[in-house]
Design brief:
Helices cover 48% and strands 7% of the residues. With 228 residues, the protein is mainly alpha-helical. The protein has three domains: 57 residues, no CATH class; 59 residues, Helicase, Ruva Protein, domain 3 (Orthogonal Bundle); 45 residues, Homeodomain-like (Arc Repressor Mutant, subunit A, Orthogonal Bundle), CATH 1.10.10.60. The strands form two sheets. The protein has a three-stranded mixed β-sheet with strand order 4-3-5, with helices on one face. A two-stranded antiparallel ribbon has the order 1-2. Helix 9 crosses helix 10. It is elongated.
Amino acid sequence: MPIELQVKLLRVLETGVFMRVGTNREIDSDVRVIAATNRDPEEAVADGKLRADLYHRLNVFPLQLPPLRDRGKDVELLAQHFLDQLNAQSNTKKAFLPPAMETLRGYHWPGNVRELRNYVQRAYILSDDAGIDTANVPLQVSSTQTSSGSTLTISVGTSLASADKKIILATLEQCGGVKTRAAELLGISLKTLYNRLEEYGSSSAEDVGEGNNTSNSAGSGRAQATEA
């Protein structure tokens, strides 16, 4: 909001009166203002983008809403709520398949609830009556989200098969279970990725954590050889 407009808003909040454009008659108002922002207001004040007096006038009862990724089962509840709305509108009975819901819970959701709502709507449109699966309707994982994160350390002497397995599973985990994105980063086809995962079987989850050390290095699924 421009600084000039902030002055007018502050005046309305302080006096409770305003004038319509083109008139000189004051109108009394009785309103309750709820202001929301996805930026740090104190930082905006320091940068001169937000008036300090307006900030303190609005900051009567602050509430902090955590991002969707930190709200546990809210992802599942909200996704089901959005899907129920779409089913009611079109008189359908589409449902999420269990693997799809697991992927939704593990995704980072940088766009929060709006991104989740948009995905559910897209998945509803593209899926058939058999159910919604993220393998058929992949999440749109941004390149910035998967370009940085954990660095995988593989010791010298590790077999190529074991190294391939660790890299594939670590990349899949970094992509939040989105197989299409993982295959793209690995430079293999989606069919090849499915074949590899089928070979690994139920032990995959245990192997993801082996040798997966967090560091400041950029690059998802990057292998670094070190002497054991």
